[in-house]
Amino acid sequence: MIYTVTLNPALDRTIEVDQIRCDVANRIIEEHWYPGGKGVDVSRVLTTLGADTLAFGFIGGFRGDQLEAGLITAGIGCDFIRIAGETRSNLVIHEQLIDTQVLLNSRGPEVEPSAMMALLRKIRNLQNPGLLTIGGSLPPNLNPSIYRTIIEIAQERGGTVLFDADGAALKAGIEGKPYAIKPNLHELSELVDRPLNSLEEILSAAQEPLEAGVKVVLASLGPDGILLVSKDLILHGIPPKVKVKNTIGAGDSAVAGFVYALAEGKDVQEALIYAVAAGTATTMRSGTALGKREDIMALIPQVQVKNIPLPDRSPGQNNPAKRT
Ligand SMILES: Nc1ncnc2c1ncn2[C@@H]1O[C@H](COP(=O)(O)OP(=O)(O)O)[C@@H](O)[C@H]1O
Ligand SMILES: O=P(O)(O)OC[C@H]1O[C@](O)(COP(=O)(O)O)[C@@H](O)[C@@H]1O
């Protein structure tokens, strides 16, 4: 069983328009609603891959019902805690004429202390937590330190956590020493508080969380794939060129591919390949329809992996990491 935890799930609404024009009625060509949020997306991809998964988190109101119904009807395991507020809806607008996507993420509802405690109890009571993915933005009334608490509880129970969040939440979660994190380039740059303009700069930034106790950093680089950085191994997984329809959910799909492969007993190099293939498979589907098992399996043989030499940390040496 792979558990996912999403504190602030969302019902993702995707809208297709030709182009947004001011002061006229813009006609919607097509629209779809999908259950979303980091862990929810991970559970969706795990299910298409055939893994057992259980999505934890908070839902409320009519949108919460819609989200839960979407998962249940698709056969995706979930065990949400009900809150008084209304689950948020995030909006994705695709302007077809200029092929651009705008993403508007809501803050989401507050979570009552009793609901928060119920979730902590659920995680504390897991008999054999195995792999867990935890992530996404925080409900507005929760302190980022809640991520550290959840990660510590899960790992004290013997679980292995892959954590995916941004900003203050990412910083706080790292203090809980998750096994792995998956920042994208923007999130990594924000984490180390400097621009990252070359592979050397990205590599050096991705090594910083290792000093804080994270074992694996998966720095996702959009069309350039994923850099896997650990103390004794640096790998660059590169996807094939594909026709991209949508990139929302690509990061979550990559997380799902990685933990799926680990749960199947594969090593981190193979897990990196699954991560890249799953992320890229999702970019080939429109809206927030995520990659399907057949897309992922077809992409796996097309993912290249380059081994990058570990930087020489002896005094006076320049960083020898080479560009791929
Ligand atoms: N334009 C693209 N072409 C091919 N693969 C992509 C593209 N964008 C994303 N991906 C795949 O999805 C993964 C995650 O995407 P990324 O945009 O880095 O994450 P996030 O959604 O978290 O910002 C990438 O590492 C890559 O494998
Ligand atoms: O919790 P946040 O940071 O607002 O993000 C939630 C949004 O991100 C998604 O989980 C997609 O994330 P990725 O594009 O990073 O994979 C959407 O389903 C959801 O609307």
Automatic annotation (TrEMBL):
Its EC number is 2.7.1.56. Residues 8-290 form the Carbohydrate kinase PfkB domain. This is 1-phosphofructokinase. Belongs to the carbohydrate kinase PfkB family. GO terms for biological process: carbohydrate catabolic process; small molecule metabolic process. NCBIfam families: 1-PFK, pfkB. Keywords: ATP-binding, Kinase, Nucleotide-binding, Transferase. One of its GO terms (cellular component) is cytosol. It catalyses: beta-D-fructose 1-phosphate + ATP = beta-D-fructose 1,6-bisphosphate + ADP + H(+). One of its GO terms (molecular function) is 1-phosphofructokinase activity.
